[in-house]
Amino acid sequence: MSRDRAIDAHYADRFNPSDPVMDAARTISAEYSTVPVSTTTAGTLTLLARMARPATAIEVGTGTGVSTLALLRGMPSSGILTSIDIDADKQAVARDLIGVARIRAHRVRMIHGRGEDALARLAAGGYDLVFVDSEPLTYDRLVPLAIERLAPGGLLVVNHALLGGAVAKPANRAPRTQVVRTMLDRIVERTDVARLILPVDDGLLVLTRV
After folding, report:
1. 75-120 pLDDT, tens per residue?
2. Which of 59, 71, 145, 163 has its CA 20 to 30 A from that of 36?
């Protein structure tokens, strides 16, 4: 990220609203060596969820609950979020914070396990929104599975889609970069999705199933 873009991102994070529960989730994430989504990315998720109004949604990567809270706050009050993470301890933190935020517990279903395994067990075509925030090395497997879970018109959001500028640099041949590039190339070849990349933080890939 250029110096000017870094300044812009820092300003946006200070300008965009947060709240004490989100701040607590971010503070606790440091204890688990987890990097949560930024205030700007969280706000983008909430906005997209408000626009999509999903009755059912999936999150791959619960963490300590920052993105979980962001999605739930944008979804309709009857919306149900299925959140997947390999770390049950972090999910327990997220569930506690959801309670602190006075979001009804039945609106969240936690699944403990690997993203690929859990996604494969969920109903194909049964979800209105999917958010993927996982290790980019898995994206060649995760993203096609996530698209399969989408109902027609459903929305997929993938974090780390630009890897903070690495994807756009041809000289960067790191394994994570190459996996993300390959995933994006395959997205371009698909005729069943409409696509957009937003240069927010590490990059957000937004797809609609058509």
Report:
1. 999 999 999 999 999 999 999 999 999 999 999 999 999 999 999 9
2. 145
Residues in Cβ contact with 33 at an 8 Å cutoff, skipping those fewer than 6 apart: none
Q: What is the distance between the alpha carbons of residues 82 and 56, in angstroms, rounded to a whole number?
A: 8
DSSP state of 28: H
Backbone angles phi, psi at 183, to 5 degrees: -60, -45
Amino acid identity for residue 116 in this structure: E
| 203: DSSP letter | -
Q: What pLDDT is stored for residue 1 in this prediction? A: 46
Task: For residue 210, give the H/E element and its range.
Answer: none
Query: Domain residue spans in the chain?
Result: 3-209
Strands (E), the chain: 56-60, 80-85, 108-112, 127-132, 150-159, 193-198, 204-209
CA distance 177 to 180: 5
Residue 12: how many other CB atoms lie within 10 Å: 15
Fold of 3-209: Rossmann fold (3.40.50)
